[in-house]
Amino acid sequence: MRTRPLKVALLGCGVVGSEVARIMTTQADDLAARIGAPVELAGVAVRRPGRVRDGIDPELVTTDATALVKRGDIDVVVEVIGGIEPARTLITTAFEHGASVVSANKALLAEDGPTLHRTAEEQGADLYYEAAVAGAIPLVRPLRESLAGDKVNRVLGIVNGTTNFILDRMDSSGAGYVEALDEATALGYAEADPTADVEGFDAAAKAAILAGIAFHTRVGLDQVHREGLTEVTAADIASARRMGCTVKLLAICERAVDGRSVTARVHPAMIPLTHPLASVREAYNAVFVEAEAAGQLMFYGPGAGGSPTASAVLGDLVAACRNKVRGARGPGESAYAQLPVSPMGGAVTRYHISLDVSDKPGVLAQVAMIFAEHGVSIDTVRQQGKSTPEGGAPPAGGGEASLVVVTHRATDAALSATVEALRKLDTVRGVASTMRVEGE
Amino acid sequence: MRTRPLKVALLGCGVVGSEVARIMTTQADDLAARIGAPVELAGVAVRRPGRVRDGIDPELVTTDATALVKRGDIDVVVEVIGGIEPARTLITTAFEHGASVVSANKALLAEDGPTLHRTAEEQGADLYYEAAVAGAIPLVRPLRESLAGDKVNRVLGIVNGTTNFILDRMDSSGAGYVEALDEATALGYAEADPTADVEGFDAAAKAAILAGIAFHTRVGLDQVHREGLTEVTAADIASARRMGCTVKLLAICERAVDGRSVTARVHPAMIPLTHPLASVREAYNAVFVEAEAAGQLMFYGPGAGGSPTASAVLGDLVAACRNKVRGARGPGESAYAQLPVSPMGGAVTRYHISLDVSDKPGVLAQVAMIFAEHGVSIDTVRQQGKSTPEGGAPPAGGGEASLVVVTHRATDAALSATVEALRKLDTVRGVASTMRVEGE
Fold first, then answer.
1. Is domain B6-134+307-326 annotated with CATH 3.40.50.720?
2. I want to staple A211 with a disulfide (CB 3.0 to 4.6 A). Which of A219, A347, B382, B409 is the partner?
3. Closest-CA distance of chain B to residue A315, Å
4. Which of A285, A432, A330, A131 is nearest to B319 (CA)?
């Protein structure tokens, strides 16, 4: 074993950073044995220097992150600040000064991954980011390496713990969205401003990263279709139950059937209770991968939290350090396939549509005609009178009824055009909800 | 990209080998892009040269595997022959002639992994074996690399598809073991001689490999406690159901609570229906990993079959080839911890014990005394008369009753000593079954 220690700079010392520092200290011997060299914390950049940090030598703490990454003797920089700037500049500077980088920064990787990868490549450095997607769950490495000889066709993931907690609560207690969000906030699963989670921004960043790796294609954040879960109602969850489904906020990355394009999207969807993702409860994450030779794989675990995220960071840190010791490099970006990324209209899915309609004869025929005109085939229809007592005659002016239609698979463009046309029908008083159905 | 192709020798061309060859041909461009160099099949060693092999140039086929691995121009040898010899000698010879090796050979890795690793190390070559454990499921790489900065405390896996299929059938249909085995054989899930699967040899080899990686400790095949599932009865499965459990053949690798030793074992066990492993159906595999920082992770997928195993082999092939191109090496054996491997008696578990007892007063007190004498605490007891009509008086000589005891956690030594002592009680006519309870 080499005796000169590898030097690690830690950028950020919040929930994740402090756990990384703690494990680096308490597990130092194990890490040294696994790396083949001792590893030491050489500096910790923070914003608020005054705060006491258990187990971290105050001498190591600095507010000058730039000076730290420019020191020149740093082997690996661990970036757990989050956000675009100053993280991007610091990482770039770190590469330019000979360091490899381990990052947990999904926003930055999704926004500017290719540039960071290129800089790492030019400098002969490593860029690892397992912690950026699904916390502790090994996912980036299995996709980049274990499945490197296979052809991934589909990635279907629950990659945001906050929204899974909210949907799980709505499903198990019948609570509405606001009530479930309040509970998530009270329990610390949702932040004071939950926008990034509930509007799907967090999941979209992860979808962009996963699609990029899975399809060897750069997928920009703006190419990921994104819908949050704020409009999911207790009625939607109840409807899902009636068809043997539950509602999950899914990140879906798919190769088109002809293999010539890919799509990436985040939205709530109904999935059958028999699907392995349906039983992912509380704030857990899970990612389902369909590959041509491997078949269906699932990876499950805690998607967030200080310790789980630190586990992923440290796995990457060991890899980056091993490479430093051996003068080797890990796999870089693989974007050779450069498949076009189709907009949402090109995605193939199924819709569950709830319509409020006039309760009079001929409505179903009219509705069915609209589907047929758009080339969308209907799987099931459930018709339910609201104002008409069972067996009674409809009121003179026609009462209200609801019609629940589940389609077969069609492009999202055809499905949404169908919904638009339905809205224009005189007999359709409103489209109560539409939700996609996945995982079949 | 370098233009000189990497040369691959394939040892074995059965179900897995032919699929590896097929994918190497059909996905050649993708593999080249991911490796950074073209890769070509340079030779295929088989036992029966006469058989036609679709898509494989007959010129490449040879029966002289030794000459093939000695050629000197082979970059990577893929060994999918299985068994100890000639696989071991061929792999060693391959290393000595400059090749890296990808193997799917669980028996050999479990029996002689350390020697192979040492030879690879001496020759500066790579040894990869993702396919040796749980087929397509990325498990070896996540344990070796993704969790390299964490402390794994427990691995609990369904790693044999044949036995999971049998137990799943017994559970869903109430079939007995023989009937379920017959169905597995008819459907091709069990081999004509099912011994390796049903007696747990296959799972034990995987447990040895997993324990070795998880605990950075060499675990010999003879250190893995092994019980098959041939004695599991329909009554056991029914008992499991009554306590909200199902029966699975589990490979369990555990670090002792004091952290100073490890155990590895394979046996049938009851697990709660709420445990993620309980819903692993048919011939699927899944491995549950508990790590200190990461928490609970699960990896799920097809554990066998030509295509899934080929997927794992090809992932390793890409890794080995990338290393060849870059002049780098993957992680070698990590056995620095050298923790002692405790025998089964040291494992901590719970027992579900069914006793046939005399149906007379005082039996439960006698039985409870035996548990107390062995320091084993009882969780629940269910007492059921067999010959006594409900509320009726027992026959003069005392009829038969059954007593089902579920214990709290204790060492397997204490639990099995308790069972031995129970057998000696006059009032205990027989121990109908004992089964461990795990996953809580």
1. yes
2. A219
3. 4
4. A330
